[in-house]
Amino acid sequence: MPVEKFEGPLRSRANLFKTHPSLTIILSLLVLILAIFTSASNSVIPRLGLLFGHLTPRHTPTTTTTRHVTTAATMTTIYAAELEVAQLAVQRAAQLTKRVFREKGTKGAVAKDDASPVTVGDFGAQALIIAALRARFPHDAIVAEEEAAPLRTDAALRERIWRLVRETRLDDVAAEGLLGGAVADVEDMLALIDRGKSEGGRRGRVWTIDPIDGTKGFLRGGQYAVALALLEDGDVKVGVLGCPNLPVDDAAPLTADIGANQTDEEGRGVIFSAVIGQGAWSRPLRTGALAEGKRISMKPITEMSSASFCESVEAGHSNQSEAARIAQKLGITKPSVRMDSQAKYGSIARGAGDIYLRLPTSKTYQEKIWDHAAGDLIVREAGGQVTDTKGQRLDFGVGRTLATNSGVVAAPAAVHGQVLEAVQEVLGLK
Ligand code: AMP
Ligand code: MG
């Protein structure tokens, strides 16, 4: 009897397969699918590989100390490795930009073809960020603002940047190891800078880098940001902004003077970050390992009259007189807060400010994807909505520019429609 009892269920299961042969086929198929899933590599089945890639450590860290950290991080959350590397890369690059920011004089500024300035800080920060991406995500494409051409013909400029790149490292050995360590030599530095020439687009993984967003602010002693974002198939998945001159304190009120005569002294320096579907955070900008992060969210606007809106310092980047008329239409009584760079996105994401308007000054200018990708995600993950002046989401999948968009309207989701309506009335888009 005990044997019968034991064998009973087995026998009836065997009978089941005999009476339903299709079950055997279905089960075999299931086993086959599972086997493919677990063994699929990125090259065999790219889409499935991509999905699984985020759950498993694909990029071998360079040291044993870092392996443990990376494995734990990547196994738990989608994009955890990308987020960690991006924040550390921004933190390291910001050490270089801070050093240049403190220099008196021209900061090695040269004019680019479009007459916009670029400093030794821009080149150096871009080289350091791309070095980290090459070490950790070697197959990803990169869209970065600068190129090495001016350095190839100017030995003094090149040497100055090389010295900065060579001397900048995180003061935490494990964190520096996670970024792949030092750049080999001057030639390697130039090659790294030139890895940022991807055309972007709708397919695959693309990092966008603005090594110093708001270079004019950086030169004036205002706000600037080190900006890095990961796009996947044209959508922003990870966004990081290092803002060395913003207060660490998320609750610090946004005063009208935040955009001028800034320092990066005690109490300043913050990293904003976001991962798609996982929220937005801020943390103090450090010199080694990452500091503890805090969740941030936009402030609900109860009264438009007490809302504050941010815009560019540069009148050539955003139409300030139209912005004033929009503010008036909305009943906003405070003067605008003017500051350079994506620090504006970070400031509204943590509720220090409320609305960010960027109104086109010319019909032909196309916004650059590196000027908006990180900020767009950080604001949306903090409870905001970001569109252009036509009400369309920013489309990062059309190339190096936001060719199909016009301007930016960012506000808490609950009032975005109201703000957009005022924008469209004033711009004559309705
Ligand atoms: P912001 O500091 O917010 O004024 O933005 C700085 C960015 O504005 C720079 O990184 C430039 O890429 C970008 N920019 C340059 N010219 C224009 C323009 N005419 N309209 C809008 N943005 C511009
Ligand atoms: Mg920029």
Automatic annotation (TrEMBL):
<dbReference type="InterPro" id="IPR000760">
    <property type="entry name" value="Inositol_monophosphatase-like"/>
</dbReference>
<dbReference type="Pfam" id="PF00459">
    <property type="entry name" value="Inositol_P"/>
</dbReference>
<protein>
    <recommendedName>
        <fullName>3'(2'),5'-bisphosphate nucleotidase</fullName>
        <ecNumber>3.1.3.7</ecNumber>
    </recommendedName>
</protein>
<feature type="transmembrane region" description="Helical">
    <location>
        <begin position="21"/>
        <end position="40"/>
    </location>
</feature>
<keyword id="KW-0460">Magnesium</keyword>
<dbReference type="InterPro" id="IPR006239">
    <property type="entry name" value="DPNP"/>
</dbReference>
<feature type="binding site">
    <location>
        <position position="212"/>
    </location>
    <ligand>
        <name>Mg(2+)</name>
    </ligand>
</feature>
<feature type="binding site">
    <location>
        <position position="213"/>
    </location>
    <ligand>
        <name>Mg(2+)</name>
    </ligand>
</feature>
<keyword id="KW-0378">Hydrolase</keyword>
<feature type="binding site">
    <location>
        <position position="210"/>
    </location>
    <ligand>
        <name>Mg(2+)</name>
    </ligand>
</feature>
<comment type="similarity">
    <text>Belongs to the inositol monophosphatase superfamily.</text>
</comment>
<dbReference type="InterPro" id="IPR020550">
    <property type="entry name" value="Inositol_monophosphatase_CS"/>
</dbReference>
<dbReference type="InterPro" id="IPR051090">
    <property type="entry name" value="Inositol_monoP_superfamily"/>
</dbReference>
<dbReference type="GO" id="GO:0046872">
    <property type="term" value="F:metal ion binding"/>
</dbReference>
<keyword id="KW-0812">Transmembrane</keyword>
<feature type="binding site">
    <location>
        <position position="145"/>
    </location>
    <ligand>
        <name>Mg(2+)</name>
    </ligand>
</feature>
<keyword id="KW-0472">Membrane</keyword>
<keyword id="KW-1133">Transmembrane helix</keyword>
<dbReference type="GO" id="GO:0046854">
    <property type="term" value="P:phosphatidylinositol phosphate biosynthetic process"/>
</dbReference>
<dbReference type="GO" id="GO:0008441">
    <property type="term" value="F:3'(2'),5'-bisphosphate nucleotidase activity"/>
</dbReference>
<dbReference type="GO" id="GO:0000103">
    <property type="term" value="P:sulfate assimilation"/>
</dbReference>
<dbReference type="InterPro" id="IPR020583">
    <property type="entry name" value="Inositol_monoP_metal-BS"/>
</dbReference>
<feature type="binding site">
    <location>
        <position position="371"/>
    </location>
    <ligand>
        <name>Mg(2+)</name>
    </ligand>
</feature>
<keyword id="KW-0479">Metal-binding</keyword>
<dbReference type="GO" id="GO:0016078">
    <property type="term" value="P:tRNA decay"/>
</dbReference>
